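Figure-free illustration: sequence to structure, shown twice.
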Amino acid sequence: MVLYEYPFNESIRTMLRLEHLFDRLGQLMQREAPVDHHFALVTIFEIMDVASRADLKSDLLKELERHRSLLQGYRGNPQISEAALDEVVGRIDHAFDGLNQLAGKAGQALASNEWLMSIRSRINIPGGTCEFDLPGYFAWQQHPAESRRADLGRWSTSLMPLAEALHVLLGLLRDSGAPQRVVAVNGQFQQSLPPGRSYHLMRVRISDGAQLVPEISGHRLMAMVRMMQPEADGRLRPSSGDTEFELTLCA
């Protein structure tokens, strides 16, 4: 099954982008080639760019607090496991405390590192990090993989509270939805959303054997999926067949 996710608002869109970048960073850091660690550093700078939004940190703290208050309301409910509730609230508390103790924006501590900022200023220039442009950076790339990995880990430390908060919030959001099997008739599917309930994320799972790409759109009143068939040159054309897939709406 191939999973596609579609955010219904800008806040979730930003969170998914950051989650994607943190996942990429984790994979690249575990590798050993200098080129992989170069792109790990590129990813750190991209995270800093996305996280530079002034209200991101406060928005995440508010969301963590909202979830904590909501879950505390289940205390004493005989249908709710107190142990499971304690575990989830504990994860929320840990993420909240870590993010709240972070001074300034995520990655702000790296902005005072002149060497890193010299790399950042040239990294988007095609070929701008060649050895004759940044000899110090070229020398760093010749260090043993373990040394480079340790540096990357140290530089990304200030970003980890943000990564933990995102992991907790997106996990809670995804767990809020119940998957349902639906059919795109003649390649088209649409579903009216109940008024008075705000959905934040739509998840679509398609069999990888179907060889189809979902074109997803939606708003507070409607969710829509159009199945597209990739052609040999990479272009997509509408599929006319009936396709069963899994749909999850997360509030």
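We now fold a second protein in the same way, so the two outputs can be compared directly.
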Amino acid sequence: MTQQAHALGLRPPCPECPELPDALEHRLRDRMHLAELRRNATDWKGRLALGLALIGPGVLVMLGDNDAGGVVTYTQTGATYGLGVFLPTMIVLGIVAYIVQEMTVRLGAVTRRGHAELIWKRYGAFWGWFSLVDLIVANVLTLMTEFVGIRLGGQALGMPAWLTVPGALLFVTYALVVLRYWTWERISLFIAALNLIFVPLALMAHPDWHGVARAFVGHGWMVPGGVLSITFLVLISANIGTTIAPWQLFFQQSCVVDKGLLPQDIRAGRRDLMLGVIGMVVVAIALIVLSAQTLKGIPNAQGLDADVILHALRAKLGDGTMALFALGLMEAGLIASIVITASSAWAVGEAFGIERSINAAPREALGFYLPAILGTAVAAAVVMLPGLDLGFLNLSVQVIATVFMPAAMLFLLMLLNDRELMGNHVNSPARNAASIAIMLALIACNGLYGVATLFPHAFGG
């Protein structure tokens, strides 16, 4: 490695020069690669090469957001309400996700610091611990839904849980600990792209295109039945929770930092994010359309778990479609496990001021890798227990993400308005207004859900 570093010009070729840590050496190599691409971005080929190299954090965070729990939530939504209010809602939630995540792109590129690190340094240990504990608890709960999806998808394909769940845990561990950032990102992007498998599945269901069009031109903007209900509020909260979640803020900002994006890359980071948002929205709509076409009318549809969904799809569309859905469910759980585990590792490393890069060798960064892997292992172990109420677990996790999100957004907003940190890249008044509106909407949604839970007849049952 030392000779390679000398050849790249990372250190003078002299015996007196100290050995660079692996993390720094790999990071410098990545920075030099991006710097070379920037110098060559003088024509369309050079700009295309740079643009492709900068793709990563935005696509990963948004397609990783279409996780196994999200797949089940969107399917529950379509089975419960069909082609209606939730189709156009996905467009709105995509816009919300872009507004929120774009702030992490600017924050990471300008400060070159991760989200957890900034909270600890700007607001102290109390709020640092508060945000870190929230994140880790939410991450472990969310990872449970990912391994549930992997387990049930594998079982539908004839693979036992003792093979799929430990196998997925082993792969996530290998990807995080053994691979270096650039390879980790490229492999993760390949897995994330398989999320699009749900689009042809929706087309294979021969959807009611007239009904889809009506949902987008006004028919779908009415509350089902004309009144709010506990079922509607739970599904609204769950859909919000599967679109924007605290882990996404920590993940994308740290990913931007580890990748080496600079302020001049913010526009490319926005394009990367928009590509991810488009993919997320298209897949979410495809899942709602698929389930509305094939599962609408199933009793207690909002309580469906992945196992029931797979059996229903087999009965309606045959073994081939069910197998593709099972593969998509496993992919969704796997890519989400990869990125959520990374978000935990980055947050812990940043919070305690230890090595915090996927470029770090395990011997140099045990405190960075080990807590994240342990949290993921706990989630994997829990889903191997018999008797779990999987449908309830999935909805509960998505709703918890919605409950935690306003506090996470408050820290994000304060950081984005800190001129000492952000300089000319502080939030504009329009961005602040949009962000505050999102926070208030989240709080209102949480409040309505709480009232509906305590007084179920207050909104029509």
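Summary for the second example: The first helix runs from residue 2 to 8.
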